[in-house]
Amino acid sequence: MSRQHYLKAGEVAFSKMDKVSAELLALTYGSLVTQLLKDKEEIESVNVQLEKMGYNIGIRLVDEFLAKSGIGPCQDFRDTAEVIAKVALKMFLNVTADVTGWNSDLTACTLVLHDNPLNEFVELPASMAGLKYGELICGVIRGGLEQVHMRVSCTFVKDVLKGDDTSEIALEFKEILKEEFVDEDE
Amino acid sequence: MLYSFYLYYRHYCVYHEAFNHGRVAKDLRGDQKLISGLLFSMKSFCQKINPKDLGPNALGNPFRSYSTPEYKLHYFESLSGYKLLFMTDPSVPLLRELLSFIYGSLVVEQIIKNPTFDIGERLTGHPLAPAFSKALNDCVQATPFFASLPQ
Amino acid sequence: MKTSILDRQFSKSKGEVSLSLYAFLFSEMVQYCLNNVEQSQQLEDKLHEVGVRVGYRVLDLLCYRDKANRREVRLLSMLSFVSQTCWRALFGHAGDLLKGQDSELEYMINDKSLLLTKFISVPRDFSHINCGAYAAGIVEGILQSAEFPCEASAHTVEESTNPPTRSTTVLIRFASEVVEREKRLQNS
Lengths: 186, 151, 188
What we know:
The complex is a heterotrimer of chains A (about 190), B (about 150) and C (about 190).
Chain A (H helix, E strand, L loop, with lengths): L2 H14 L2 E3 H18 L3 H27 L7 H17 L3 E4 L7 E6 L21 H13 L2 E9 L8 E10 L10
Antiparallel strand pairs in A: 2-3, 3-5, 4-5
Helix pairs in contact in A: 1-4, 3-5
Chain B lengths: L1 E8 L2 E7 L9 H21 L16 E3 L4 E6 L4 E7 L7 H17 L16 H13 L10
Antiparallel strand pairs in B: 1-2, 1-5, 3-4, 4-5
Helix pairs in contact in B: 2-3
Chain C lengths: L15 E3 H17 L4 H28 L7 H17 L4 E4 L6 E6 L3 H5 L12 H14 L4 E10 L5 E10 L1 H12 L1
Antiparallel strand pairs in C: 2-3, 3-5, 4-5
GO biological process, one term (chain C): endoplasmic reticulum to Golgi vesicle-mediated transport
InterPro entries (chain C): NO_sig/Golgi_transp_ligand-bd (IPR024096), TRAPP-I_su5 (IPR016696), TRAPP_component (IPR007194)
Protein name (chain C): Trafficking protein particle complex subunit
């Protein structure tokens, strides 16, 4: 499936969604992050909590994605990354990313975000350099992929909020989760 | 004529409804396990004897239906592991699109997106079940096959 | 070189995202607050707190964008700004502004289909949770930040329409000095 095809699919999918102000999302998310920073002592546990919340979102969001985007099974992990970057991110966040930096095995890549609506109005003080502000998005991706039987690791490695030129997510394929037949006993 | 609807998440049945006085199993749980085993085996089997070689990693499209002289089983599966099936009389044409619709508009919108429902939880007996049942009934009763006599 | 956030333009509205993602995020937020409080009352307080913080920022943003830095000092203009401009920017439509019958300190903003309560179902264990507490927090944050000290709370009413809808009312109770100041301004 070509990049063009996915770009178009992303636009079509987003156009069908009910919309809400990006500012409201950004302000709500910012307020949530502030609350977490207040509740937790360590910045790392905020990162973990954001990722976990993202995961909880991802395991549900994925079904809306599958139902509304019409995207079928991916051929390989390259395909998967492109779908996330061009269709999924577009459909929910109204942004797209570039997929670059593939390793030779084609199991790891980088998603370069042109824009991150969550970052709107945000400035990170130097004392919070360890905070992965947008880590919720990484959790969403991990949760969503787990539901389609793929275990991955996903985390922010560069962030414009920290002075980097771009915001980048490192996405790495770990394993296919086999569908096992388990005799479920109540 | 529609006899029944099943919704599975992974390998266990989260919802079941019988229509038109369809077969009421004496051992519902046992039946549900049997069907689950059937789906798993069928998918695997169909893939193995596929005359077209799709390669080792291809998920492929699982089987869509099977028929006996007495009934037809229609099957739809989402990539995320939700399995929907109808049991109907053999003359009913393939209802895959209807199942897909039920997945997208009912299961996703009413159940998965609802925070009171834990993913993987049983829907039968859940507070959301009556509304889901109503929506499901509205949906299937609108089809021409709902109560059509077996040909 | 990192551009300071203060140098960035935000005169244009930034755009839109899917309602779905927002709903999921809000849901997770409610869930988080729920797991971090002990009694149901505190959930509302926590949501309120989160809302207040949003309100502080909303004021800065919208004031700058819509009024070119002119501060509202009159009570009704401010309330109008909240129920019209702010409400529209946040929830997509205007709210209805009403005067409280019982006290000159009270005003209400009513919303027949508040975005938040439309899709947030009440968690099983708590039957009286009102996520309008979040909206009330936003209102309180906006007004406090604009030097109109007050307390805002939310109440939902099930309308007997078909299908039944929930109408949310944010009750604003101003500090007495606000009303006194308004009277002084009126007389001058």
